[in-house]
Amino acid sequence: MGIVTSVAIYFVIWWTVLFVILPIGMRSQVEEGEVILGTAHSAPARFSLSKIVLRTTIAASLLFALFYLGTEVLGFGIDSFPHIVPGT
Description:
- The structure is a single chain.
- By secondary structure, the protein is mostly helical.
- The chain has one domain.
- It has 3 helices and no strands.
- α1 packs across α3.
- The longest helix is centred in the last third of the chain and has 25 residues.
């Protein structure tokens, strides 16, 4: 696997993990009881982008390491799975 392919796969994994981690631990302004005028009631009460980016980077790095281990070290690929339709 080349460096460009690795970066592209990591980028896709990172964005996917971001949308998984984004709602974890978020509490809305209604749940906190502190609704600020002019904002949506469902807006986050406390939003820390740096914590979310750090958690996403750690989780994506672990997932990419598992992907790399499975594909490059252990040699699993799309041909490793049995065919659903016989004769293909």
